[in-house]
Specification:
The chain has 338 residues and is an alpha+beta fold. It has helices spanning 2-6, 10-34, 57-76, 86-112, 127-147, 156-170, 187-207, 209-224, 307-325; strands spanning 42-47, 50-55, 179-184, 227-233, 236-241, 245-251, 255-263, 272-276, 279-283, 287-294, 299-303.
Length: 338
C-alpha cells in the first residue's frame, strides 16, 4: 500500500475521486428541487418535434449522476500516476474537469427544458443552459489544466526554510538573537477613528458618495500608521509601517546602544513615523519603547508593545550590535555565524 501511495499524487487522487461524486450529488439535489415542476416521465431523447424517448425521474437522475461519476473517474484518474509525463497529466486533469461539468450541463439543460410542462413530448433542450454550461466547462477545464501542478517542485521558499532550519540547528543562539513582533495603538484609538470618520462617512455617502469614500480612505490610512512590524536579528533592526512599508532599516553594526524606556509620543512628534529634533521615531502610542543610539550619533525610537517585549527587543539589539562590532555579523545563507 505504501509503494502504491508513493507512485501517485495523493492530492490529485483525492480530487479525482471526490469532485465527480460531489458534482453528481449537487446535480441530484438540484433535480430533486425541480421535481414538482417536471412531467412524468421525463424525455431523455429529442427530435425536431420534441421528446422522443422517455424515462422515469429516478432513472434520469440516477443514470445522469452515474454518468458524471464514471466519466469523471475514468479521465481524472489518468492524471494521478506520478510516472506519467507532466503534460499528459495536466491535459487529463483539465479534460476530466471539463467532461464532468459538460455532462452536468447537458443533463441540466434537459431538465430545465421540461420545467412547467405537463407532457414531456412538448419539451426541448434549453439551449441557453447548454451554451452557458458548456462555455463554463471549457474555460474551467483549460484553467484547471494550466494551474494544476503535476510535477513535484522544490521552490526557493523550501531552500530558505531548509537553510533556516540548518542554521538554527548548528547555531542554538540564533533563535535568541531573533525577535519579531507587531505593535499597534490601543483599541480606544481605533474606536475614536471609527467614530470620527466612518459614522460621518455613512451619513455623507447619501448626499456625496465621493466624500464618504474619501473619509473611509482617510480612516484606513490613519489606522495603517498605527500598526508596525518590528524585526530584529543579527542583520539589525527593521521596522515596517503597517507590516508592509519599510521605514527603518538599521544594520547591526550601526547600533551603538539600545535600551527599553517609557516614552511619551508627544516628545517625539506624535504617533506614527516621525522625524523630530534629529530623532526618527515609529511610535504607535505612548508607553513602552526601545530607544536606539546609532554610531553616527543619531537616535531612533520604536514602540515595543509591552514592557517585557520592549526589554527583549532591547536585549536582542544590544547582543547583535556587540556581535557585529566583534566582527561576527549576520550569517550568510546556510552559514550560521560563529
Amino acid at each position: 500500500m505504501g509503494k502504491l501511495l508513493d507512485s501517485v499524487d495523493a492530492k490529485a487522487l483525492r480530487f479525482a475521486l471526490g469532485f465527480p461524486v460531489a458534482l453528481a450529488a449537487a446535480f441530484a439535489f438540484c433535480a430533486w428541487l425541480l421535481r414538482p415542476d417536471l412531467p412524468d416521465p421525463l424525455a431523455v431523447r429529442w427530435t425536431a418535434d420534441g421528446g422522443a424517448a422517455f424515462a422515469p425521474f429516478g432513472a434520469y437522475v440516477g443514470a445522469g449522476a452515474g454518468a458524471i461519476v464514471v466519466a469523471g473517474w475514468v479521465v481524472l484518474l489518468q492524471a494521478v500516476p506520478l510516472g506519467r509525463p507532466v503534460l499528459m497529466r495536466r491535459i487529463m486533469m483539465g479534460t476530466g474537469f471539463f467532461l464532468s461539468l459538460f455532462i452536468t450541463s447537458a443533463l441540466a439543460a434537459g431538465l430545465i427544458g421540461q420545467v412547467g410542462l405537463a407532457d414531456a413530448r412538448q419539451s426541448r433542450v434549453d439551449m441557453t443552459v447548454l451554451a452557458l454550461g458548456s462555455g463554463a466547462a471549457v474555460s474551467l477545464g483549460v484553467t484547471m489544466a494550466m494551474v494544476y501542478k503535476a510535477d513535484r517542485q522544490w521552490s526557493p521558499d523550501d531552500d530558505r526554510a531548509l537553510q533556516t532550519a540548518i542554521a538554527r540547528e548548528t547555531d542554538p543562539d540564533l533563535a535568541l538573537d531573533t525577535i519579531r513582533l507587531w505593535v499597534h495603538a490601543r483599541s480606544s484609538v481605533f474606536v475614536m477613528i471609527g467614530i470620527a470618520t466612518l459614522f460621518p462617512a455613512a451619513l455623507l455617502a447619501v448626499v456625496l458618495p465621493w466624500l464618504g469614500i474619501l473619509l473611509v480612505l482617510l480612516a484606513a490610512v490613519s489606522t495603517a500608521f498605527l500598526f508596525a512590524r518590528v524585526k530584529a536579528d543579527r542583520g539589525g533592526l527593521k521596522v515596517l509601517l503597517a507590516g508592509v512599508v519599510p521605514v527603518m532599516d538599521v544594520p547591526a553594526g550601526a547600533i551603538s546602544a539600545a535600551s527599553a524606556a517609557e516614552v511619551r509620543a508627544a516628545d517625539y512628534g506624535g504617533w506614527g513615523y516621525r522625524h523630530h529634533r534629529g530623532t526618527a521615531a515609529m511610535l504607535v502610542s505612548s508607553g513602552p519603547a526601545v530607544v536606539v543610539r546609532k554610531t553616527d550619533g543619531q537616535r531612533l525610537a520604536v514602540s515595543g508593545g509591552t514592557l517585557d517585549s520592549a526589554a527583549r527587543l532591547a536585549d536582542v539589539l544590544t547582543r547583535v550590535a556587540a556581535r557585529a562590532r566583534r566582527g561576527g555579523g549576520p550569517p550568510a545563507v546556510g552559514q550560521p555565524g560563529s
